[in-house]
Write a structure and sequence with these properties.
268 residues; mainly beta; Immunoglobulin-like; 7-stranded mixed beta sheet; 2 helices; 5% helix; elongated
């Protein structure tokens, strides 16, 4: 089984081949769209499930919460979809007619204080497993089948109650921390002199709330100021903002992981 990185890539597809000499056609002839979506101010989003099969396709849907997204400590945690305090995915299983299409809705019941990240899994199963309430029975049945079982995982970002973009650097370490409430997809970093002239370096980095990033080979100088350009997904536009120094030598929260920013931004 091969698993692609989680939030480092917008989406991934897991293909599981049963222990056998031969692997035949995939069990689930379907795909989902989009593979990454956001639940914004309106509190809802949707994912389409499309059948490419000439028979009825049975699909079960699961939800997992991603903790410490974008860091080396990133993990997926099982989530009980009966807990309606956070998000709801409906329906939780669907029967697709041949060549048919269904819409799965994602609803944020209570906006979080800070952006949360989830993955919704779509798995093609047999009719027996579809009608069964036992996941164990479903797993045992799949283990006896010969073929490839396709599982689609769509990434979902849920907007916080109040969106605040805030990125700061720690002078003592050169680390950058996100002490805001939304993730910050940085596209450029600017080093500005006292005259206000900035030298911009292109970067590709997403910093999630409560995470820290080490910018390799960069030295922050008190004689200069710094700016970033980033995509504000809650407003669907690129913005520019200051990158100020943190007033403390440590973040105001316990950091949950580190992400390294590849590339050099040298400053003498």
């Amino acid at each position: 089984m091969r698993i692609w990185p989680l939030t480092n890539i917008a989406s991934y597809l897991m293909a599981i081949c049963s222990a056998s000499v031969f692997c035949h056609t995939a069990h689930a002839a379907m795909y989902v769209y989009p593979m990454e979506t956001t639940v914004g101010e309106n509190g809802t989003s949707q994912i389409r499930v499309i059948s490419h099969n000439d028979e009825v396709e049975f699909v079960k849907i699961k939800l997992k919460k991603i903790t410490n997204p974008g860091t080396r400590n990133e993990r997926e945690v099982e989530f009980d979809m009966s807990d309606a305090d956070q998000i709801i995915v409906a329906p939780q299983k669907i029967a697709l007619s041949a060549g048919g299409e269904r819409v799965v809705r994602i609803v944020s019941m209570s906006p979080p204080e800070k952006e949360t990240t989830w993955r919704v899994y779509f798995e093609g199963v047999s009719e027996t497993a579809f009608n069964s309430f036992s996941d164990k029975k479903n797993q045992e049945e799949k283990a006896t089948k010969v073929g490839v079982n396709i599982i689609w995982g769509a990434l979902v970002h849920v907007a916080p109650r109040k969106a605040e973009a805030s990125l700061k650097y720690i002078p003592s370490t050169g680390s950058v921390i996100n002490d805001g409430t939304i993730r910050i997809p940085v596209t450029e970093v600017g080093v500005c002199n006292p005259a206000g002239e900035c030298s911009w370096k292109k970067k590709a980095l997403t910093v999630y709330p409560e995470s820290e990033t080490s910018i390799q080979e960069m030295h922050f100088s008190p004689s200069n100021t710094y700016k970033i350009k980033y995509f504000n997904w809650t407003k669907n536009r690129t913005e520019e903002t200051e990158l100020p120094a943190s007033q403390a030598d440590y973040p105001p929260f316990q950091l949950k992981g580190n992400v390294n920013l590849k590339g050099n931004l040298n400053e003498k």
